[in-house]
Amino acid sequence: SQQGEEDPQALSIQEGENATMNCSYKTSINNLQWYRQNSGRGLVHLILIRSNEREKHSGRLRVTLDTSKKSSSLLITASRAADTASYFCATGNDMRFGAGTRLTVKP
Amino acid sequence: GAVVSQHPSRVICKSGTSVKIECRSLDFQATTMFWYRQFPKQSLMLMATSNEGSKATYEQGVEKDKFLINHASLTLSTLTVTSAHPEDSSFYICSARDPRGVYNEQFFGPGTRLTVL
User: Fold this and answer.
1) Is the dihedral of CA B81, B87, B93, B95 positive or negative?
2) Contact indicator for A22, A71 with CB cutoff of 8 Å
3) Which residues of chain B are modeled with pLDDT < 70?
4) What percentage of chain A has pLDDT greater than the value 70?
C-alpha cells in the first residue's frame, strides 16, 4: 500500500499566489521527501526534511513536518506558471508515493 | 545531486516481444535501486526493490517472471518486460539510493515510456 497521501488531488491557482499541498503518512519515518514531476517526465527531488526537523526552506519552497499528526505540508510561494506539475511526497526506505497533487498555475 | 540515467527513454514494441530497460547510477554506487511504473495521471507504483548481488524483492501483485530484474553491478539494474502485452504499456521509472547520504536520499531516472502495440 502507498505510504504518503497528498491532499488536495488537484489545485489551480493564479500566478503569484501561494500553493499549499499536504501529505499524510501512516507509520513512523526517518525523513520525508517531496518531489515534482512534470507531465511525462521523471521526478525531481525538491527537499528532504528529517523527522527531528519541523520546518525547512529552499528558495520559494517551505516544508513543514508534524510527526505527531503524521503530516507534512509543502508551500510554494509566489507561484509561477513553470511550477505547474504534479507534486508527490514519499517516505520510508522503500520510497512509497501517494497519489500526488496536480498543481496548475495560470499565467 | 547524484545522476541516474535510464535507457531507452522511449520504446515501442510488438505484443509478445521482450523489452529491456537499463537504469544506471552515473556518479555513485547504488546497492539498492527501485523500479516503479506509472499510468497516466496516476502515482508511481513501486514494483520491486533491486539489491546488488541478490534477488529482487517484488511487491504484491507484480509477476516476477514477467518483470525480470537484474542488479548485476553497483551501477546498473535492468528491468526486462517479457512477452509484453498492450496492458504493459506504461511509464517505467527507476531510482537509486545514494549510500553517501545519511538520510537515504534517492534520485530518479528520467523514465522510460513503453508502448506495446
Assistant:
1) negative
2) yes
3) 1, 101-104
4) 93
Q: With contact defined as beta carbons under 8 Å apart, do A88 and B43 qualify? A: yes
CA distances from B107 to A17, A30, A79, B10 (A): 29, 17, 25, 20
Phi first, then psi: give them for residue A35, nearest 5 degrees. Answer: -130, 155
pLDDT tens for A40-67 read: 788 888 999 999 999 999 999 999 999 9
Question: Do B95 and A35 lie within an 8 Å CB cutoff?
Answer: no
Three-state DSSP class for residue A23 = strand
pLDDT digits (tens, 9 = 90+) for A1-24: 345 677 888 999 999 999 999 999
Taking only Cα atoms into account, the Rg of chain B, rounded to an integer number of angstroms, comes to: 13
CB atoms within 10 A of CB B105: 16
Please judge whether A95 and B109 are an interchain contact, meaning their C-beta atoms are less than 8 angstroms apart: no
Contact A42 B110 (CB under 8 A): yes
